[in-house]
Every structure is written in structure tokens, then in C-alpha cells.
Design brief:
Blueprint lengths: L1 E6 L2 E7 H6 L6 H4 L1 H19 L7 E7 L3 E8 L1 E2 L6 E2 L4 H5 L5 H21 L1 E8 L2 H10 L2 H4 L3 E7 L2 E9 L5 H11 L4 E2 L4 H7 L1 E4 L3 H8 L2
Antiparallel strand pairs: 1-2, 2-4, 3-4, 5-6, 7-9, 7-10, 8-9, 8-11
Keywords: Competence, Sporulation
GO biological process, one term: sporulation resulting in formation of a cellular spore
Subunit structure: Homodimer.
């Protein structure tokens, strides 16, 4: 996938149909299967966030152009006034005119973005996926972490294409931003953050542990 950062609030990315299929999606189903379309979009946005540190916040303006060999997507964070009554799109007019919109995809993206954002705000949680080259790295991490580090974590362990992945969810009911940073810094000593979504891991990977990954690993591999 090719990613271009246009400005602080706008990012454009291109994904070929070949890349889409390599990710496990059928070219036709992204048009007619809403659930699979949503999964693909959020997987792409996770990758954009990782590479460009593009945080999803506030209203978004999204345009999708269907090309012969792939999709070109433009995502812009709208600027909202303090009273919340007005928002502006910080993108030049020529950029907007250059991108014709496919109504089917735009409607779905616009609607689902607001839905997911509302859900995240209600849940008050942050999710990450960490990949590990060897299971030994998961064991070493589990031994280093204290009970207070993982006591309130929601975790799942997967195996996918010869690599281990731990999906982690932090609830702001139990973790402050500083505590999340501290726990992540420990985890990243043993693994690397991944753009793979938990949905893809569930569908195409093998679930090894469905909960309490670090507690269970520390217990059985002490």
C-alpha cells in the first residue's frame, strides 16, 4: 500500500487489488459485503496510523476513487469550532476536484467511521497488536511484567503465518495514559507493534489463548 501525507490533517493512500487479495479479501466482496469492506478499511487505517502517525479523531471527510488496478482513498480530519457548530475541511479545492467519488464506498465509510468512533468513546479503551518472532519472547515478556501490569488487560494470543501476535486492550477505567505508555514500552522490548487487526487474526490465524495471555504464560512457563 502506498501512503502519501498531504498535510497535518490529510492523508492519501493507494491500495492495488492485488494487495487487497493478498490480505485475504476478494475483489468483489469489498463492494458487496459490508462487513468485509469495513474490516479492510480499518486494517488500512491502522497501517496509515502506524506509518504516518495519523490519529483518527473528530469528524472525517473521506473520498474513494475506484481505479482500474486499485483504490485511492483520501482521508481528511475536519476542523471543528469550539462550539461544535461548524467544521471546515483543511484541503485545497484542487485536491478535492481531482478525486471523483464512488458513492457506494463513501457512504459506507462515512457512516461506519462515525459509528466506530462513537463505540470507541463509549468503551473508553485502546487496542494494540504486538507481534513476536518466537514464543520464547512472549514467555520472557510474561516473566518481566508484574501482576499490576497485566491484571486488568484484555489479551488474546494468536499464531499467524509462523509469527505470534498478542492483541491487547487497555481500559481507561484501570489505566492512565502514562501507565499505558509504560506497559507498552516493556512489551516493545520483546516485540513490535503490528498493523494486523484482531479481526484478521481471528479469521485467518490460530487462536492459542483467548484471554489472560501473560498470566497464563507466566504460570505455565515459570
Amino acid at each position: 500500500m502506498e501512503i502519501e501525507r498531504i498535510n497535518d490533517n490529510t492523508v492519501k493512500f493507494y491500495i492495488s487489488y492485488g494487495d487487497i487479495e493478498e490480505r485475504g479479501f476478494d475483489r468483489e466482496e469489498i463492494w458487496y459485503n459490508r462487513e468485509r469492506s469495513e474490516e479492510l478499511f480499518w486494517e488500512m487505517m491502522d497501517e496509515v496510523h502506524q506509518e504516518e502517525n495519523f490519529t483518527i479523531e473528530g469528524p472525517l471527510w473521506i473520498q474513494v476513487q475506484a481505479l482500474d488496478k486499485g483504490l485511492e482513498v483520501l482521508v481528511t480530519r475536519a476542523q471543528v469550532t469550539k462550539d461544535g457548530q461548524k467544521f471546515e475541511l483543511p484541503i485545497p479545492e484542487d485536491k478535492i476536484k481531482d478525486l471523483p467519488v464512488d458513492e457506494r464506498i463513501e457512504d459506507f465509510l462515512d457512516e461506519h467511521f462515525q459509528l466506530k468512533q462513537d463505540q470507541n468513546e463509549d468503551e473508553g479503551s485502546l487496542e494494540f497488536t504486538i507481534k513476536f518472532k518466537e514464543f520464547e519472547d512472549v514467555i520472557s515478556l510474561s516473566k518481566k511484567m508484574s501482576v499490576s501490569d497485566y491484571e486488568h488487560l484484555s489479551t488474546k494470543l494468536f499464531s499467524f503465518e509462523g509469527t505470534y501476535y498478542v492483541h491487547i486492550e487497555f481500559s481507561d477505567e484501570y489505566f492512565t495514559e502514562e501507565e499505558i505508555d509504560n506497559v507498552l514500552s516493556i512489551m516493545l522490548e520483546y516485540g513490535n507493534e503490528s498493523s494486523l487487526t484482531v479481526h484478521r487474526l481471528i479469521e485467518y490465524g490460530t487462536t492459542i489463548m483467548d484471554e489472560d495471555v501473560f498470566k497464563t504464560t507466566a504460570k505455565h512457563f515459570s
